[in-house]
Automatic annotation (TrEMBL):
SUPFAM superfamilies: MFS general substrate transporter. PANTHER family: MAJOR FACILITATOR SUPERFAMILY DOMAIN-CONTAINING PROTEIN 3, SOLUTE CARRIER FAMILY 33 ACETYL-COA TRANSPORTER -RELATED. The lineage of its organism: Bacteria, Pseudomonadati, Pseudomonadota, Alphaproteobacteria, Hyphomicrobiales. It is found in: Membrane. This is AmpG permease.
Amino acid sequence: MAAGAKTARPSWHRSSIGTVGAIGGLYVAQSVLGGLTWVGLPAVLREQGTDLSTIGLVSLIALPWALKFLWAPAVERYRLPHHGGDRSALVVLAGIAVVVVSLGILGALPAAGLPWIFALLSIAALATATVDIACDGYAVQNLSKASQGWGNTAQVGGAYLGSAIGAGLFLVLVDRGGWALGTWTVAALVALLSLPFLLHARTARFTGERTHLPSLKAALKRPEIRRGLLVAGVYILAQKTSFNMVAPYLIDRGVSLATVGLLSGTASIVLGIAGSFAGGWCVRRFGVRPVLALALLPQALALGFLSLSAFTEAIPVWMIAGTALMATSGVMAFGFVALYTQFMRWSDPRQAGVDFTLFQCMDGLVSLGGGAAAGFLAQHLGYDNFFAAAAMLALLAVPAVAVATQGGTGAAPGAPRPA
C-alpha cells in the first residue's frame, strides 16, 4: 500500500446505527431488482413455456456486475475527489433514477417481449452495479471494525429481504394483477428504499486532502486481494450454481406461480434474515474460516435431497420446497455474511469501492457462467443428475476454501476506519 497517504475522515460523529440503516436500505433496494430478474423472471418465463436453456440466459443480465471493476476506479475517483466532500449520494441518485425509468418502460411493454426485457433489465443492472460500487466503498469507509458484523448482516440480510420482495411480491402481483402492476411496484419500492441512504450520505462532510489514487493496479498488487479472488471464485461456484434452476424445478413439479412467489417471499425473508444474523453471530464467535466451511455442508445435503426428489415422485412437494428454500435462503445467507466480512477486512478504505468490487465481480463472473451452464446442464442431464453434481461440487469446495483462507483472515493494511 502507498505510504504516507492522508486519509479523509469524517469531521463529525456518525452513528453506526444510522450508517448500517442507510446502507441496509440501499442493499434491499438493489436486491429487489435482483429478485425480479433472477428469481421472478425465470418463473414467469417458465409458466409461459419458455425452455430451460433460454431461461438460463437470464444470467447474462448479470454481465455488468461481472465487469464493473472496469469502471470502479473512475467511480471511486469521482466519489472521493482530491479536494471536497464525498459524492456517494450523487452517484446513487443518478443510478437509482436510471433503474426507475427502465422499470417504468419495462412495465409498459408486454411480458412476452424477451429482447426488450433483456435490454432494459441489462440497463438497470448496469446502473445498480455502479450504485453498488459507491455503496460498498461508503460502507467500508464509515463502518468501524466493531460494527462490520452489523454492516455485513445488513448487507446479506438486506440482499435476501430485497430478493424475497422482488421475487415473491413481484410474482404474486403478476399472477393477480398483471405484468405492469408487478414491474411498476418494484420500481416504486426501489426509489423509496434508496431514500435513507441519500439523506444520510448527502450530509457527509470531510476535511483534509486525499492523495491516494484509486486503481486496479494498486489493488492487484496486494496478496489479500489475489487470495480473496480465489476464495470468491470457489465459494460462489459451490453456492450459486443451482440457484437459477430452483424456481423452474418447483414449477415443473406442479407448484403454482403464486405459490412459488409466496414461498420465495415470506419464507425467504424469514430464513434469509435468520441465516444472516446467525452468520454474523458465528463470525464474531468463531471467526470467518470455520463459518465459510460449515455453510457448504448443509448446502451439499440439501442439493443431494433435491437430486433424490427429482429421481422419484414419492417425496412430497412441501418437503422439496422447504429444502430448496433452506438451501437458497438460510444456508446461503449464513455463509455469505462470513464471506463479505472477510472481503471488507481485505479492502483498503482509501479505495474500498475498487477492492470490494473486484471480489463482487468474481461473484458476478462465476454466477454468470455457472447460471448459463446450469440451464444447459439441467435441460440435457435432467434435474436429478444436475442437483447431484451441484452437491458434489459443494463438498469438494470445503477443503479448497479451508486451505485458501488459512492464515489469511487478517485486516487489510491501509487507512484506519472510524473508531
